[in-house]
């Protein structure tokens, strides 16, 4: 494969890479090659029609688009329209179903009585104080302490402890409090999973967005290609947008960053509806999976045959050959990442980004927003600098890489 006629090589066809490829082609008029080791575009947002049920499924787990960013929302509308889908999630615990995230309905159900918002606040605050007093310290020492400080003991034991133990394969008392943010509790009956201004599902699915994004004649897409098999063909005058694992780029010289992964077990059932919702969590520790996805509920506006596809999700630590999903982000990981960041200075023509390249968990809207900012603050200046260097060396003639 020849790469010398491309101005930009994008490694990874997920949202971060695809947005930058689209911007480079449309706004700079330069040639882009998008490489992906997988056999499809779209990264973890890839969707496809299950041949047995006819339901469009998300191969890497349910993806709901939501954002508060007007810029991101307007940008994505160049490639898709959205339905008015609003995501609602439920958790099964001790044989009962609860609304998530925790809201007033969840609190009332957990305590078995009707509460006003003030009564619910006071109940949770009292449980949080009791936990602190029982341990004789106000410091948050672990994930369990932090969770109880947010939701109280009853809700923690019912909905959080078992789920977290399965998700991390570790007792929550042995997990760092830094792993989670403050758990949200709504003291209203608002049961929407997301509270963002904009939310919906792309009318034609996610893969259609990427096809349109990457359809520019200056963009070439090569699938099933490992960047590391051809990295030595790239010159310093070409810009690389690298969205793979940053530790892999540097051959793990500072160590392996920690990740969680998931295994998704597919099942097809001869029923029109398996569980009544797109996602149901299973909080009990003795249930081996963390949740079940049923994708037909993401598009209630579509006609479906009386068959459905579900994925059961199992969580575990990621090995080197597994697909990394969630950064563990321990103190050791952060120190390791800082070392890798320092090493990027020796690669001035490489921009690291995306979930793997930045070692951050990014929602789709965050990846798109980050890509738009990266294009403005790093990609455009790279080529402006190249033009200035060319002019200084060769006079006003165009750079060999100019489109």
How would you describe the overall organization of this protein?
It is a single chain. α4 crosses α5. Helix content is 33%, strand content 18%. The chain has 403 residues and is of the alpha/beta class. The strands form 4 sheets. The chain has a 7-stranded mixed β-sheet with strand order 7-6-12-13-14-11-15. Strands 9-2-1-10-16 form a 5-stranded parallel β-sheet. Strands 3-4 form a two-stranded antiparallel sheet. It is built from 10 helices and 16 strands. The C terminus is likely disordered. The radius of gyration is 24 Å and the shape is globular. β6 and β7 form a beta hairpin.
Number of strands: 16
User: H/E element string?
Assistant: EHEEEEHEEHHHEHEEHEEEEEHEHH
State the helicity in percent bands.
25-40%
Strand arrangement, major sheet: 7-6-12-13-14-11-15
Radius of gyration: 24 Å
What shape does the CA trace take? globular
Q: Oligomeric status of the shown chains?
A: single chain
Judged by helices, strands and strand pairing, the structural class is alpha/beta
Secondary-structure topology with pairs:
Layout: E1 8-11, H1 15-28, E2 32-36, E3 47-49, E4 56-58, E5 65-67, H2 70-76, E6 89-93, E7 96-100, H3 104-111, H4 117-135, H5 143-168, E8 198-200, H6 206-213, E9 219-223, E10 239-242, H7 246-249, E11 259-269, E12 279-282, E13 291-294, E14 308-317, E15 326-327, H8 331-343, E16 350-352, H9 354-358, H10 364-394
Parallel strand pairs: 1-2, 1-10, 2-9, 6-12, 10-16
Antiparallel strand pairs: 3-4, 5-8, 6-7, 11-14, 11-15, 12-13, 13-14
Helix pairs in contact: 1-10, 4-5
């Amino acid at each position: 494969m020849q790469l010398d006629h491309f101005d930009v090589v994008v490694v990874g066809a997920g949202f971060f890479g695809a947005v930058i490829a689209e911007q480079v082609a449309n706004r700079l008029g330069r040639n882009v090659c998008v490489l992906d080791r997988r056999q499809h575009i779209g990264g973890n947002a890839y969707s496809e029609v299950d041949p047995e049920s006819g339901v469009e499924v998300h191969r890497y787990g349910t993806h709901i688009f939501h954002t508060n960013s007007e810029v991101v929302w307007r940008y994505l509308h160049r490639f898709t329209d959205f339905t008015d889908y609003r995501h609602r999630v439920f958790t099964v615990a001790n044989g009962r179903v609860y609304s998530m995230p925790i809201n007033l309905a969840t609190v009332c159900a957990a305590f078995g009585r009707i509460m006003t918002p003030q009564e619910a606040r006071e109940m949770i605050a009292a449980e949080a104080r009791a936990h602190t007093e029982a341990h004789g310290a106000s410091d948050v020492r672990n994930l369990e302490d932090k969770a109880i400080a947010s939701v109280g003991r009853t809700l923690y034991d019912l909905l959080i402890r078992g789920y977290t133990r399965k998700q991390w394969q570790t007792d929550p008392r042995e997990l760092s409090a830094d792993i989670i943010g403050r758990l949200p509790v709504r003291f209203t009956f608002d049961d929407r999973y997301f509270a963002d201004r904009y939310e919906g599902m792309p009318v034609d699915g996610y893969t259609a967005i990427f096809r349109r994004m990457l359809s520019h004649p200056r963009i070439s897409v090569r699938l099933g290609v490992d960047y590391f098999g051809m990295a030595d063909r790239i010159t310093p005058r070409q810009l690389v947008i690298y969205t793979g694992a940053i530790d892999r780029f540097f051959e793990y010289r500072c160590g392996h960053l920690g990740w969680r992964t998931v295994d998704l077990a597919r099942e097809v059932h001869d029923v029109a509806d398996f569980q009544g919702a797109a996602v149901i969590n299973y909080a009990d520790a003795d249930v081996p999976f963390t949740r079940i996805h049923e994708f037909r509920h993401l598009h209630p506006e579509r006609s479906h045959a009386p068959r459905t596809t579900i994925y059961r999700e199992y969580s575990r630590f990621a090995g080197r050959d597994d697909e990394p999903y969630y950064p563990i982000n321990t103190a050791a990981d952060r120190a390791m990442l800082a070392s890798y960041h320092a090493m990027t200075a020796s690669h001035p023509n490489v921009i690291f980004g995306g979930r793997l390249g930045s070692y951050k968990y990014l929602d789709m809207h965050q990846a798109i927003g980050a890509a738009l900012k990266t294009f403005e603050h790093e990609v455009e200046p790279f080529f402006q600098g190249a033009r200035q260097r060319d002019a200084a060396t060769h006079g006003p003639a165009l750079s060999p890489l100019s489109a």
